[in-house]
Amino acid sequence: MLYNLLVPLADQYQIFNVVRYLTFRTGAAVLTALIISFIFGPYLIRRLRTMQRNGQPIRDDGPETHIVAKQGTPTMGGFMILLGLLVSTLLWADLTNGYVWAVMLVTLGFGLVGFADDYLKVSQHSSRGLPGKVKLLVEMLVALAAMLWISRLMPPELATHLAVPFFKDVLFNLGWFFIPFGMFVIIGASNAVNLTDGLDGLAIVPVMIAVSSFGFIAYLVGHTGYAEYLQLHHVSGSGELAVFSGALLGAGLGFLWFNAPPAMVFMGDTGSLAMGGALGAISVITKHELVLAIIGGLFVLETVSVIVQVASFKLTGRRVFRMAPLHHHFEKKGWAEPTVVIRFWIIAVILALIGLSTLKLR
Could you tell me if 306 and 300 are in contact, meaning their C-beta atoms sit under 8 angstroms apart? Predict the structure, then answer.
């Protein structure tokens, strides 16, 4: 909004010229979202505690320490993230950019699904929440709407194509199949982040690492000169997603302040589904869907651990891991929660560096 209001005045008042710069607005989005989280976070946590007398229901089959240590902690802290993210994006992004609205559609849509899930868990005092089939159906509808929108915004030569990392000229034309493929990326990323959200600070830091990486990628892909130099597929207008990514980074930092062990609030599905969906949508727009599997490799590992565990138990009656998702396996092995969290953060950083290396290794 500020961009659209102030840029026309830049010719008359030179001070407003700074708003033209994407890097400035990205930095401003980070700080704005962070400040909003700091201001409204304590109030929101107090309200959630009042409304949720018993806090988030804890899984009976989870690690025994969680039943004692995490009992009574309120959930739905994702509201804090969404508030900072959306207000900051609306303030600093170019609101005539369709990609920004498409990603916000995914973020809000998946956030509402997560809210419904969290609300049912809290109100029914159960860890089950929204039925899986209903959740998946709504996610598919949101992802479908977003993919149809994104496909109309994309350049025709890229709209239905899949880019391959490390190869500058390799593009696979998926045709009509690109729509369900993009839906799979968005839904898969959303639920992968959701599965990772099981320990204090475990999900939010890898999300911040991933979104920082994709904010950088969006800036490069949207810049004609950098895209040509690095031999990336240029997507005009996608650079504006750097502002959105900056807003998500700032909101994530603000949430981490309250989610650091011992957590004062959990993000719940309200936050995890929304952030994962946003990451998936950005990767589709920037033509780096496969790179998301590298940068977000930690989320992939967590998801694969659940799939392997369920498949093995159904087929053989045996479990591969002591407990799934993977972070609970290491808890069961005796690792302290901070040890698991910090080591997973390190893995997330390494994977992000590997993913970013694909920008140059072509």
Answer: no
DSSP letter at 249 equals H
pLDDT of residue 185: 98
DSSP sequence for 326-358: HHHHHHHTT--HHHHHHHHHHHHHHHHHHHHHT
Residue 86 · residue 245 · CB < 8 Å: no
Q: Is 16 part of a structural domain of the chain?
A: no
pLDDT band at 227 (very low <50, low <70, confident <90, very high): very high
Query: Within the chain, where are the H helices?
Result: 2-6, 22-51, 64-69, 78-92, 98-124, 132-153, 178-196, 204-222, 224-230, 241-259, 268-285, 289-295, 297-316, 326-332, 337-357
How many domains, the chain? 1
What is the spatial distance between Cα 341 and Cα 327, in angstroms, rounded to a whole number?
8
User: Positive or negative, the Cα torsion across 133, 139, 142, 146?
Assistant: negative
Residue 86: domain span: 25-357
Q: What is the pTM of this model?
A: 0.93
* More confident site: 178 or 362: 178
CA 234-237-238 angle, 5° bins: 70
Note whether residue 286 is domain-resident: yes
Q: Would 152 be classed as within a structural domain?
A: yes
Q: Is residue 224 part of a domain?
A: yes
Gap between the Cα atoms of 328 and 28, Å rounded: 37
Contact 185, 280 (CB under 8 A): yes
- Tokens representing residue 132 in the block: 């899986």
